[in-house]
Known about the structure:
Elements lengths: L2 H14 L10
Amino acid sequence: xxxxxxxxxxxxxxxxxxxxxxxxxx
Length: 26
């Protein structure tokens, strides 16, 4: 867990085209 995990999830979301982590943008 941690920031690395979060960044990975964000990258995966971007590749999928689904903003699963909108809080990162805000």
